Amino acid sequence: MTNLFASATDSPQPAAAPVAGPGRAVLQLTGIEKVYQTRTIETVALNHVNLTIHQGEFVSVMGPSGCGKSTLLSIMGLLDEPTSGTLELDGRPVQSYSDKELARLRNHKIGFVFQSYHLINDLSVLDNVELPLLYRAGVGGKERRQRAYAALEKVGLGARTGHFPSQLSGGQRQRVAIARALAGEPEIILADEPTGNLDSVMGEEIMDLLLTLNREQGTTIVMVTHDEQQALKTQRLIRFFDGSQVS
Amino acid sequence: MIRHLLKLIWRRKAANGLLALELLLTFLVLFGLGCLVAVVGLALRQPPGFSYEQVWTLRLATNNDTLPQEPTLLRLQRQLGQQPGVEVVSLAMYSTPFSEYIMNSTATVAGQPPLIVAEVETDDQFAALLEMPLLEGRWFDRRDEAAGLPPIIINREMREAFFGNRPALGQRIRLQHALNENEKAEGRVVGVVGSYRPGGELGPPQPVVFRRRVPPADGTRMFAYTLLVKVKPGTGAALEQQLVRIVTAITKTWTVSATPLSDSRALALQTSLAPLLAVGIISAFLLLNVALGLFGMLWQAISQRRDEIGLRRALGATATDIGRQFVVETLVLTTLALLPGLFIAAQFPLLGVLGVSTHVYLLGMLLALVVLYVFTLLCTLQPSWLAARIQPAVALREE
User: Which sequence spans correspond to the domains of chain B?
Assistant: First the structure.
C-alpha cells in the first residue's frame, strides 16, 4: 500500500507535477454567474466566469475573502446552481440533471476537502472515511471497510482507524478528510482552504499530500487557498477579485 | 445504513436516552390501553345473552306499606300485561340486566369444588321477555309448582364449570347465600340457557343460576321489586305515563320509576368505559409529551447537524436520503426503546397475571406498537422534510 503521506514528507522538495500538456476537460465553466438576491440587496458572487479544468491538473484559486472562490467551488462540486451560464462535467452539461443524478455524480466523481474538515465527531475515523461509500449502490460493508482502510493507509493514519476526530490533531483530522475524499476514488478533488486551519508545518504536510496525490494518481485537484507559497506549487494559479477571474 | 445509524444513536445515547425512556413509558401505557381496548372490543363482539330493545324496567319501592304484597304484584302484572302496547310483563325481583344489584351465592354439586355464582330470582316470563336462547331443557313454567325440588336453570358458564360434557339436566345443586350462611336452597336443573351476562356486553362472562320466584304466598315482604315490561315498537312516553298511573292506582303508597333498558345499557357502558377513557387521556398526554420531545429533539438535531447534512449531501446523499435518514433514525430509536417494553409486556401472558387471555395481551401489544410507530412517523415527517430542504452549499459554509 502506498503511503502518500510518507512519500510526500520523505521527499525533500515537493515540487509541482510536471505539466504534460492539457488532458481532456473534466470541468468546463462557461459564462457562469451567481447572484445572491435578498429583498433589498443583490450580491454578485461570480461574474461571467469562463474556466476549464483539465484532467490531472492541480489548479489553485486565490483571491481576497468574499471574492467568490468558495461559491465557485460549490458550483464546480454540484452543491450549488449558477444563476446563469453552463457547467459541463466530462463534456456533459449538468444543468438539467435531477437531484438524484447530481448526488450520484458528486459521489462518484468528486471528493471534497474542507477547511474545517467537516468530520462527524460521533463516528470513528474509519466510519467517517466510509461515509461516501454508504451512498454508493453495490458497495457492501466489507468492501467499504477495505477501501476506507486503504485510504487511511495512504494518508498515514492506518493506526488511527478506531479513534474519534476529537482525539486527533488538526493535521490528522485533515488527513482523515482527505482519506474520506480518496475512499470514493474520485476523478476530481475540490479542496476549500485545506490548510487554512493548520499551522505551517501541518499545512505543508497536507499540501505535500495533495501534490503527491495529483502526481502519483493523476487526481485532478482544484484548491482554494490564501497561501501564495502553496498556490505557487500547483500547476496553475487563478486569481479572483469581486467575482471575476482576473488572471 | 442501519448499522451506521445504530452507531450514531449509540454515540448520542445521552441525548437519546431520555426520549427513549419516554417512548418506553408511552408504550407501556399504550399497552395497558391496548389491552383494555382489546378486552372491550372482544366483549362487544359477544352478545350479552339477552335482548334489551323495547324493554322497560319499572322499579317499585314498597315504602314500608302494610298491605299484602303478593296479591298486589299479581294484580299489577295482570293489569299491565293487558295494556295495548304491552307484550309481556315479568317479575324480576331486583337482579335485572344492567342492575347494580347482583346477589352472589356459593353453588355446590356433589363431587365438585364450590363455585361463586350470580343468582337471579325471576318468574316464568323472564326468558321469553328477554329473548334468552335456551340450550337445553326448558324455562320455568306451571309444571314447576308441583315439583319436589325447586327448579333451577343455569347458564352456559355454570354448566361448563360444573358438568363439562356430562348431562346437566336433572342434577341437584345446592346454593348458599355468599353473605348469609343461613340462607340456603337446593334445586334441580331443568334448563340451560346461553351465556347470560347481566352487566351487558362489557360485563364479564360468569356462572349464573336462575331460581323461580313467582309472587310468594308466604307473606314475605320486600322493600322493592322490579318489573320488566316488553312493549311493542313505536310506543313511547304516553304508554309510560299510563303504566305509572296504573301502578300508582293499584299500589296506592308505592312509588315507581320507569327506565328503558336501552338507557340502563348506555349508562352501564358509560360506567364501564370510564377507566378506558382515563387511560386514554393519560395516553394522549404521554403521546403529546412524546410529540414535543420528538419535535424538540429533531429540531435541535437538525440545527446542530446542519454541517453534517451539508457534508452528507456533498458526499452523495440526495435530499430524499437526508429526509429518510432522520425518519429511520427516529424509528430505530423507537424500536430500541420498544424492545425492553415488549419484554416487560410479554411477562403478562407468560406469567398469566390478571387472568386475561393471551389473545388480549397480543392485541394490546400490537395496538401499542402500531399507534406508537405511526405517531412517531407522523412527528418525524415535518422536521425530516425541513432537513432535506437544507441547501448543502449554505450548510457547509456555516460554522
Answer: 2-46+272-397, 55-267
